Amino acid sequence: MFEKVTVPEEGHKIEIAGDALRVPDDPIISFIEGDGIGPDIWAATRRVVDAAAEKKYGGARRIVWMEIFAGDKAQRVYGEGVVMPDDTLRAIPEFVVAIKGPLTTPVGGGYRSLNVTMRQKLDLYACVRPVRWIQGVPSPVKHPEKLNVVIFRENTEDVYAGIEWREGTPEVAKVLAFMNEEMGCNIRLDSGVGVKPISITGSKNIARKALRYAGDRKLPSVTFVHKGNIMKFTEGAFKDWGYELAREEFGDETVTEAELWEKYDGKVPAGKIVVKDRIADSMFQQILLRPDEYSVVVTPNLNGDYLSDAAAAQVGGLGMAPGANMGDFVALFEATHGTAPKYAGQDKVNPSSLILSGVMMLEYLGWQEAADAVVAAMAKTIQEKVVTYDLARQMEGARKVKTSEYAARIAENIS
Ligand code: NAP
Predict the structure, then answer these.
(1) Cα(52) to centroid of ligand 1, in Å?
(2) 309 given a catalytic annotation
């Protein structure tokens, strides 16, 4: 079936049945260790996730892990230059759910971002980032508990689509000639050019996923964040298509902010999700000053990238922020920070981001008890002040421990 991936003899595949997942009690889940600090934080995550399944289900449910490869390790297994093997791109959709550590992206040259490649090749169009505070985590704001949002960032389009031409090349000369001579633009001839495509399909896919998420969990609002005052036909259209989809497919469940004042005197009718929008720059202020007015947030690709890191900073930084890349069913859970190469192999960094991505994964499997148990055990561990260096330097009286010791303590604290 695969060139270098060994499919475990035990365990079963997760299946897609109609519009739901069918998860066996022993699902095979693929993992990519990742580069840099990846192996350290992956080992910690696996230990905690396995401990939670064992403690909550006593062997009746367990994950059967299957290693797949990308980045540096792929080159070791498949040969130099192979950083994203076909095996990996086939295994992820075949086994539906996967989890990964961070992967190196060379800046300004070398190969293309592996994360972007995976998102585009597997059509993982939604980057989902829940941002909430875990009690005890040091935060730069007075009320970190007021921020509890899930950011749905469109993952395949916008200026991240990877359509760009370098300054001085014959390709960019052709593009510039077309734009200046035929489209009436006046672009400097010493420019590099990138393209920002935003489609109805991409915008509606992410809006649908966010609205469904809000509906399933009875969340109060969905906010489209955009820069439509400047970029009318891309960001502005993103917002308009979002409202259109809410009306077309979720009309009974939603009310817009405008309707709320026109028809309901500002009071939300029982059971309705309020659909609203905010200009991107003002949203950075809103999440700091009025964080409790936001619940599910939907953004195009670039703004979502910025906003999710800014939001994560409010609740303790990227070391604590989980994420997932999702298509209609296929889901790839991942740490949101990078490979932090200077700490590689030191058993030092904070594995919470990947562990909390493991929590998202457990929730996605429907193993809610195990997911809740990990969050409670992590909160307990942090309140005991048993933490890695990054949190220790912000806490008084903390005991600074290694990645593996922190994971071991969380595993012990699972009840
Ligand atoms: P980074 O790896 O996220 O690290 C930047 C800094 O953030 C670290 O030096 C450290 O700060 C802190 N940090 C990151 N992860 C941490 C953790 N788990 N625990 C504690 N502190 C942590 O960002 P980068 O140096 O810009 O990127 C390095 C590589 O990662 C690049 O190749 C980049 O493309 C790649 N990357 C991959 C992904 C992904 O795979 N999803 C995402 C982002 C970046 P201090 O030194 O101040 O403690």
Answers:
(1) 27
(2) no
